[in-house]
Amino acid sequence: MTNAHKDALFVLIKSLSKSEKRQFKLYVGRLGVNTDAKFLALFNLLDKMRKYDERQILDSGIVKKSQLSNLKAHLYKQVLVSLRLNPVNQNVRIQIREQLDFATILYQKGLYKQSLKILEKAKSFAIENEEKNVAYEIVELEKVIETQYITRSIPDRADELAVEAKELSALNVMTSKLSNLSLQLYGMMLKVGYVRSDEDLQKVKSYFDEHLPKYDIEKLGFREKLWLYKAHLWYSLLIQDFLSAYKYASKWVDLFYENKHMIPLNPVFFLKGNHYLLESLFFVKYASQFRETLERLEDQVQDPKFPKNDNISSLAFLYINTNKLNLHFLEGTFDKGIYLVNIIEYGIKKHRQQIDEHHVMLLYYKIACLYFGNGDNKNCIAYLKKIISNKKLKMREDLMCFARVLSLVAHYEAGMDYHLEVQLKSTYKFLLKMNDLHEVQKEMIKFLRNLGNIYPTDLKGEFQKLYNELKKYENHPYEKRAFLYLDILSWLESHLQNKPVGQIIREKALTITR
Question: Does the reported pTM lie above 0.85?
Answer without folding.
Answer: no
